[in-house]
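User:
I study polymers; will you set down one protein's sequence and backbone structure tokens?

Assistant:
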Amino acid sequence: MNLKARRIGGSSFSQEDKLEVVFNSDNQMLSSVVHTVELVSGVGVTHGGGAKAGDYLHYKAVERDADGDGIIDYSNVIMNLIQEEQGTSVIKVKCAFTYEEEAEAFNDAMLSWVNEPESETKGPKPLAPNPTILSTGEITLDWTEDGFK
């Protein structure tokens, strides 16, 4: 599995950039994939219409992106970025996902726990599985001004 991104829009004279994010999941069944931006250094960056770096967003929607069986293809996402001020930003794109079998096992355990009668011996509430996180390499964004010469 790997995650890669490349800039497909924007310029050094604009605060807006557009990335194509490609996720190779080796055909594993995943329950959900969310993306964020990690600010490595420099000027702050928002993504997806205003989310701060570190905030995960679901860039796919069932009603728009699912096939006839309800399966979403997470292999390609377009991510809009905005630098908060002029300067240079070094970022990485991250994705977090859970395998479908882990999500189903958690849902089954949670359903059993909810249906278990209240008592002093009721087991502890099941914990959601920790997501797997992948990261791209570093991407440099510049927003500068060109003056008349």
